[in-house]
Amino acid sequence: MAHTHSPPETLKTVSVDPAEMKSFSRMAADWWDPSGPFKPLHIMNGARLGFIKDTLCEHFHRDPNSELPLKGLRILDIGCGGGLLCEPLTRLGARMTGVDALERNLKTAKTHAEQMGLDIDYRHGTIEQMVAASEKKSGDIPFDAVLNMEVIEHVANPPEFMKDCGAMVREGGIMFCSTINRTLKAFTFAILGAEYILGWLPKGTHQYRKFVKPEEIQTWLKSAGLSPQPGIGMSLNPVTSHWRFSDDLSINYVTVATA
Questions:
Q1: How many structural domains comprise the chain?
Q2: Domain range for residue 190?
Q3: Could you tell me if residue 6 is inside a domain?
Q4: Residue 123: phi, psi to the nearest 5?
Q5: Is the CB of residue 174 less than 8 Å from the CB of residue 167?
């Protein structure tokens, strides 16, 4: 997701021209194909979705086993892509807003949501633009929860990006940050393994220097006015293709912070 310093002040609500529907439907088919080019995200999605749901239910004192455990919660997904988190969270009752810098991602996401009969507020733009737009509107309530998943390792100015993300979390709200640690092990598995050997991701998806150490994310979250909890490791079993949460933060990890 691009990070610019002087963005326009408003975001565009995404609309899809009926003439474009066919091409975005094809892209939606790619995004939502569990064996397609976004297979790594689909594999990760089950684990992170359960973690998000359970953490939100604990934080907001909800019953995780109820039919709509997230009913009424306003959640912002930053860098939402094709909507892989927005859709299941909407089905759990959340009022989702997805923002992405790539308009074609959002048109794809909107097309798929309409096909599924889901009402999701997709916005084309950046988090800085959202902050600028919300500051212009008096009474615009920030979100109960902000999802900052696999985004921060792609931005140009992580501390400023984190401040903008934090500005969208209401008092008493919560933010989730997942990213990749800057370790030799992460380089071996996330770049050499996933991009060059297994071909799970396009070459060049990640840059090692932009990986983030847990202590860096803790510092940035505190500077954004949030209270971070210790990071939790995420480990992939390459044989079963299942993710599990652990104390091993050496590759992927998630950090939860409260406002």
A1: 1
A2: 12-258
A3: no
A4: -125, 135
A5: no
Rounded to whole angstroms, the Cα distance separating 36 from 126 reads: 27
How far is the C-alpha of 92 from the C-alpha of 79, rounded, in Å? 20
pTM, two decimal places: 0.87
Helix, strand or coil, per DSSP, at residue 243: strand
The tens digit of pLDDT for each residue in 22-77 reads: 766 776 778 888 888 788 788 888 899 999 999 999 999 999 999 999 999 999 99
Q: Is residue 4 part of a domain?
A: no
| Angstrom distance (rounded) from CA 199 to CA 214 | 27
Report yes or no: 1 and 154 within 8 Å, Cβ to Cβ.
yes
Say which residue the tokens 């293709």 belong to. Answer: 241
Task: Give the Cα separation of 123 and 102 in Å (integer).
Answer: 10
Each residue's pLDDT tens digit, 215-257? 999 999 999 999 999 999 999 887 888 899 999 999 999 999 9
Answer whether residue 1 is part of any domain.
no
